[in-house]
């Protein structure tokens, strides 16, 4: 697979890896851009496996920054639902061909963007976070959807961000809980992905070459956190995610 990659493809992959690092230390949920970029230039199934390893590298940087601030009760409450979602995603990947995986990734990205925009519109109207709840029903709804989307498309960032926001987490608790949640889930996904043949020696070699871009993105994200124009950045993330999803559909 590596031998057939053109300089343009490597450039897109490097940008995606850079975004992975940024999303882990500065903009939770921004990794959907990396999902779209990887799926646009690689076979959809292989893109999921290749991106997973880079996400795990990014998780390590997030833990270094926010590991002391997790709310473990929330993680424990969501764990059963996440396992159900992971199993459903694994079953889908086991039977779906590349075209179906590409379409589902695109649909999931568009749904995540749509729900995110709806939530922000509700917030603008009410002046507060919409009350979606943080109890058992919300934990199972968001947990199962997060498990499925992360297994199939590594696209659970915005889904889980909405749940953590709905739970009224302070900033550090939000970042710490998110860091531990995705670190544990992504490591748990690794055996499934290896068993499905979407994490391979070839993809690992490609990841090794892309890790420096993740490191650079994570370090830049730590410096930029709290200094960037968040509104502008969010709009850019949403626009690029929509463009990537539409590319996958077409």
From TrEMBL:
Lineage start: Bacteria, Bacillati, Actinomycetota, Actinomycetes, Micrococcales
Record carries keyword Chaperone: no
Transmembrane region(s): 47-66, 78-95, 101-118, 169-188, 194-220, 232-249
Pfam family, one: TauE
Cellular compartment(s): Cell membrane
Keyword Cell membrane in annotation: yes
Protein family membership: Belongs to the 4-toluene sulfonate uptake permease (TSUP) (TC 2.A.102) family.
GO annotation, cellular component aspect: plasma membrane
Membrane topology designation: Multi-pass membrane protein
Keywords: Cell membrane, Membrane, Transmembrane, Transmembrane helix, Transport
Signal peptide, first to last residue: none
Protein name: Probable membrane transporter protein
Natural source organism: Microbacterium betulae
């Amino acid at each position: 697979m590596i031998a057939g990659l053109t300089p343009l493809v490597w450039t897109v992959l490097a940008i995606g890896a850079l975004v992975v690092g940024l999303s882990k230390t500065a903009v939770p949920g921004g990794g959907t851009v990396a999902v779209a970029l990887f799926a646009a230039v690689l076979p959809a199934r292989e893109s999921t496996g290749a991106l997973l390893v880079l996400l795990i590298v990014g998780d390590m940087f997030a833990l270094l920054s926010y590991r002391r601030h997790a709310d473990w009760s929330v993680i424990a409450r969501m764990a059963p639902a996440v396992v159900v979602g992971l199993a459903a995603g694994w079953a889908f990947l086991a039977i779906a061909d590349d075209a179906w995986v590409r379409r589902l990734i695109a649909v999931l990205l568009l749904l995540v963007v749509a729900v995110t925009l709806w939530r922000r519109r509700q917030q603008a109207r009410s002046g507060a976070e919409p009350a979606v709840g943080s109890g058992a029903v919300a934990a199972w709804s968001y947990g199962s959807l997060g498990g499925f989307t992360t297994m199939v498309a590594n696209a659970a960032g915005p889904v889980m961000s909405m749940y953590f926001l709905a739970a009224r987490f302070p900033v550090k608790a939000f970042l710490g809980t998110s860091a531990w949640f995705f670190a544990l889930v992504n490591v748990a996904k690794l055996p499934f992905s290896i068993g499905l043949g979407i994490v391979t020696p070839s993809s690992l070699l490609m990841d090794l070459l892309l890790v420096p871009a993740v490191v650079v993105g994570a370090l830049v994200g730590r410096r930029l956190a709290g200094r960037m124009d968040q509104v502008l950045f969010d709009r850019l993330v949403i626009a690029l995610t929509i463009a990537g999803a539409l590319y996958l559909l077409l």
